Amino acid sequence: MVLQRKALLFLLLGSFLLLSACSNSNATGKSKETDKKETTDVFQTIKTDDLKANLGKEDWVIVDTRSNDAFNGWALDGVKRGGHIKGAVDFSADWLKVKVDKKDKKLKEALKSKGISTDKKVVLYDANGKDAQTVAEYLKNNGFKNIYKFDVKEWAANQDLALESYPNYEMLASSTWVNDLINNKNNGNPYKIFEVSWGDEAKDYKKGHIPGAVHINTDEVEEGPVWNRLKDKKLEKFALKNGITTDTTVVLYGSDSMPAFRVAVILKYMGVSDVRVLNGGFASWKNASYQVEKKVNSKKSVASFGAVVPANPDYIIDLPEAKTILADKNTGTLVDIRSWDEFIGKISGYDYIEAKGRPAGAVWGHAGSDSSHLEDFRSIDNTMRNGSEILSMWEKDGINPDKKLAFYCGTGWRAAEVLFYADVLGLKNITLYDGGWNEWSMDPSNPVEKGKSNK
Amino acid sequence: MIKNRKMFLPYLLTSILQFSGIILAMVLEDLSSKKMGVARYLVFKKQEFASSFFTPFLIQIYTILFVIGAIICLLLLITKGRSKGMVFSLLIGVAANIIGIIFIQFQMELQAYHFFVIGMMIVIVVQYGWLLFNRFFQKN
Q: What burial letters (b/e) apply to A123-159, b meaning 16+ CB within 10 Å?
């Protein structure tokens, strides 16, 4: 009996020891995994002099991992100067947080197009100590080995080291700047914030908007069947109704930025001197976790616009001027901002445009997958694409930015966005052909081409 | 009204067909305030119809045809309206023609105006078909 008890006690003790051993074994395994993870999270840093020495080398690639706003020129996160290191490509940590279809494929395409490959030494820089780390982890998970981190604050603090900004980067407002504008009330100067989208109901606006923002329906500035901008007198009434004068700082945004760019271009044509569009749209505001309000703000009118509309008439042209540009290809180019299928005349792109093709002599300047997308000019987070890449794309298309460039699309929305980007990049001789393919195709006497162009 | 059960399905299908145009017009009108593409499509079609099947002259002709249709249906209702089915069909005929006149003359501001008029035309034509069917194939 005693023997049986001893055997049972031994068995229980043995089982307990075995379980304890297994448990310890698991704990040790976890601990090792944690250690391993912590080890992988540590990346080498590179000194300013070393970075400077390796700039421009073929086996090195310098990557700006900050927001597109910082890349464009805004001095954010405490840097002394805004802009990016000359020669750097952009791969923002923000892109990794975006929720879009085929995200991984799009990110890998971006890496490839920017020359960020596993055979190169990759320097990732940021200013907040987080963005480079986020991108570094992503790259490491995708087979990158030679990864270095760099704090761009050091570079920006040294006036002798070059930083590149787009000449008119301020036109694309960062959410930080808009928030500051609201908080400091534009230092007492007049300002207005507008959410722009089509329709009176403005679902996007009612869901939540930037504090103080007023809704603009795009039908307030254009009318069918051509969908050109309204006549100048009507545009002036629109400005007065919305409280806009030539001196008002106007910030435009939307869930989709394209309508905001459309109105922005019309306001610049009218003569408003400080027109800005929130880069990346309302998503960038929400991602920054700034305040959102649901209250419907009413329009507050003004008595006088401050100039005769249009004060900047060359910013938008019509059919006769478009024909003049086509007539002299040595001085100007009519740039088609539509999808390839629209350009070659395979589709019209619109339910309300029947004709297919393009104005004879127009040059394809890229756009996107269909009539409501502009992937070729936007990054995955819907901010403006790297300006060097846009100019390089146009160079391949045979578009010379030194000539007069008149952008057109179907009814002037996509082309307005591209015109605005060209303005941000500092191109001087640029304009919007407002009527676009819709207007051109309405008159059968206007020459039309289909198929691939001969450039 | 439908005494023969075999007739129920054809009657139902024809009725759906009869009002399909009006339903489509109502859907388009509703979407025109919600979808920009639909709104612009309707503006485009409005312009296209106004220069083809709905010129001012043709609109006058259609109005006259509706008025004549309403008068004929009303006269038939007074003189030949004996069976319940015939009375019902003629009443719908009169009403459809009057509604057609209202649409074509007074609802031009509707975004889907031409689609409503076409819808009413379909209603009236199918109703005439019912009247003929009642007249020649229904015994009572």
A: bbbbbbeebbbbbbbbbeeeebebbbbbbbbbbbeee
